[in-house]
């Protein structure tokens, strides 16, 4: 019963039915596949044609809903997709009845006291409907990548990283619930995240980080359906993320909001400003790194822990270090060779 639209897969479902009823505002067709590759068009065109023949309907009309190259004189020119209105569907044998209400439909098919069962989407179906939508998937992907980039620029692991991973996971889970992604894509995602977490606690950037990034991109490729469209979405999301970061760095310092939040003048000691807890007496003292310094971390000096920085090098936990200088409340250390 085509109450409003039977487009795309809906058209194939309708054609497969023994009887088709339309409301006067109903329409059917527009079933061109995405991505629109010759292989997909050919396969779907044959599917529509065979289904129409089985129900003794004109197969050429069904093919014209899928393939723009099909021409039907008086109905569809070459280069356009076919979408039938209710009156056209009735004329060409793709509608058996025109019924604007259920009562009219029951009378048309001669059914008395019908039992009508209404089906509604549950929470998981609604969730997957939203998160598996290509537009939302793309936005979640772009937002997740942007937040992960922000997380990599700050010490530790905090809210940007959690939100970034959450958005990417939402993309995967939604497509998995919708049946568009398999368990292998989820496993690649988990493996990629684990490898990146290992990389965060390893000096430098090596095999875990590279392998983790590759695993994430492969899993994204799979969950977005593969093919050129998936590659295009990933590349476009990456370009947009980089563009937003560049705009953020370029224009944020000059924005009204930033000027309201940031100090307009430097707080120099000669202007009367002082820094709390200046630890100049720590210069030259030795200690042990408690966490990875990348370049920020925790160092234990004389049984007391301090937040310290290196001058660019990565220092693993358990390494002997020496305090080289103290600027304000920033304590700089280097590895003792």
Walk me through what this model shows.
A hairpin with a 2-residue loop joins strand 9 (320-327) and strand 10 (330-335). 46% of the residues lie in helices and 13% in strands. It folds into 3 domains: 5-108, 2-enoyl-CoA Hydratase, Chain A, domain 1, CATH 3.90.226.10; 123-252, no CATH class; 275-335, OB fold (Dihydrolipoamide Acetyltransferase, E2P). The strands form 3 sheets. Strands 6-7-8-10-9 form a 5-stranded mixed β-barrel. Strands 1-3-4 form a 3-stranded mixed β-sheet. The chain has a two-stranded parallel ribbon with strand order 2-5. The longest helix is centred in the C-terminal third of the chain and has 25 residues, at 227-251. The chain has 337 residues and is α/β, with parallel strands linked by helices. It is elongated, with a radius of gyration of 31 Å.
Give the amount of beta strand, in percent.
5-15%
Please give the count of helices: 12
Mean pLDDT: 81
Shape label:
elongated
Q: How many E-type strands? A: 10
> How large, in whole angstroms, is the Cα Rg?
31 Å
Largest sheet: 5 strands, mixed, barrel
Strand order of the largest sheet: 6-7-8-10-9
How much helical structure, as a percent, in the residues?
40-55%
Q: Count up the domains.
A: 3
H/E element order: EHEEHHEHEHHHHHHHHEEEEE
Outline of the structure:
This protein is of the alpha/beta class.
Supply database-style keywords.
337 residues; alpha/beta; 2-enoyl-CoA Hydratase, Chain A, domain 1; OB fold (Dihydrolipoamide Acetyltransferase, E2P); 5-stranded mixed beta barrel; 3-stranded mixed beta sheet; 10 strands
């Amino acid at each position: 019963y085509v109450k409003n639209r039977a487009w795309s897969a809906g058209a194939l479902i309708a054609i497969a039915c023994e009887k088709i009823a339309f409301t006067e505002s109903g329409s059917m067709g527009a079933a061109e596949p995405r991505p629109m590759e010759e292989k997909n068009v050919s396969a779907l065109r044959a599917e529509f044609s065979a289904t129409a023949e089985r129900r003794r309907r004109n197969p050429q009309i069904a093919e014209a809903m899928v393939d723009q190259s099909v021409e039907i004189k008086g109905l569809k020119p070459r280069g356009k997709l076919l979408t039938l209105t209710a009156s056209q569907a009735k004329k060409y044998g793709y509608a058996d009845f025109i019924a604007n209400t259920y009562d009219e439909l029951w009378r048309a098919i001669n059914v008395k006291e019908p039992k009508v069962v209404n089906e509604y989407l549950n929470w998981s179906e609604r969730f997957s409907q939203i998160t598996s939508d290509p537009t939302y998937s793309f936005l979640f992907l772009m937002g997740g990548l942007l937040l992960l980039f922000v997380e990599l620029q700050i010490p530790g692991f905090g809210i940007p990283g959690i939100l970034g991973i959450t958005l990417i996971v939402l993309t995967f889970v939604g497509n998995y619930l919708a049946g568009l992604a398999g368990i292998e894509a989820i496993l690649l995602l988990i493996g990629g995240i684990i490898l990146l977490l290992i990389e965060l606690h390893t000096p430098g950037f090596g095999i875990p980080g590279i392998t983790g990034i590759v695993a994430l991109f492969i899993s994204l490729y799979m969950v977005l359906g593969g093919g050129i469209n998936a590659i295009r979405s990933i590349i476009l999301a990456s370009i947009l993320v980089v563009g937003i970061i560049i705009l953020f760095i370029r224009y944020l310092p000059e924005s009204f909001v930033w000027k309201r939040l940031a100090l307009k003048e430097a707080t120099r000691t000669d202007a009367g400003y002082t820094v709390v807890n200046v630890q100049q007496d720590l210069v030259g003292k030795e200690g042990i790194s408690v966490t990875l310094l990348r370049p920020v971390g925790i160092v234990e000096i004389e049984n007391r822990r301090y937040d310290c920085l290196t001058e660019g090098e990565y220092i693993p936990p358990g390494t002997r270090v020496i305090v080289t200088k103290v600027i304000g409340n920033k304590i700089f250390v280097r590895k003792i060779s």
